[in-house]
TrEMBL record:
Stretches assigned to the DUF7577 domain: 104-126
Name the record gives this protein: Zinc ribbon domain-containing protein
Source organism of the structure: Candidatus Ornithomonoglobus merdipullorum
Length: 169
């Protein structure tokens, strides 16, 4: 009878552990969904502000037109505000792309699925290079340089091999 209760107890502990893992995963996904929603909302708010500035520019330009005046520097502040808002939208879209696990095309800036090899908008090759790939590239370049130095039959100390490697950002 004790054996039965021990098995029952073990099963309950296993179920508890599984439930805890599931709860943590659900919490993580919910957190990502909430963050994604907040970022999307922020993008929409910034875009609305841009549209409001566009409307104000149009209204002011039309008034200047009706008054027969020029509008050279009149809109500089509005244009600068639009530039700032567009930068903010771009930064928010990048954060959203990170959450969605997408790759940004280096040529056109379009978001692509993480597993894509080529941009869905312009067809440019997308880089999937990771830090591990970078380390492998450095190691293989070093090994190749060593083998080239070993293959040299002449004992010439003037040979210098320079490897310029820069870690991708």
């Amino acid at each position: 009878m004790d054996e039965f209760f021990d098995k029952l107890k073990d099963g309950a502990y296993k179920a508890k552990g599984g439930a805890e893992r599931i709860a943590k995963e659900v919490a993580k996904r919910t957190s990502n969904a909430i963050t994604y929603t907040k970022l999307t909302f922020a993008v929409n708010e910034a875009q609305k502000k841009v549209n409001d500035v566009y409307t104000e520019i149009g209204k002011n330009m039309y008034e200047k037109y009706l008054e027969g005046e020029g509008y050279d520097d009149t809109f500089t502040a509005s244009f600068e505000q639009i530039d700032r808002l567009m930068d903010e939208i771009s930064a928010l879209n990048e954060k959203t792309a990170e959450l969605k696990n997408t790759l940004k095309c280096p040529e056109c800036g379009a978001s692509n699925p993480a597993e894509a090899d080529y941009c869905i908008k312009c067809g440019s090759h997308l880089s999937h290079e990771t830090d591990d790939d970078y380390e492998d590239d450095i190691d293989s370049a070093y090994e190749e340089a060593e083998s080239l130095a070993d293959d040299d039959d002449e004992d010439d100390d003037d040979d210098v091999i320079i490897i310029n490697a820069k870690k991708p950002e």
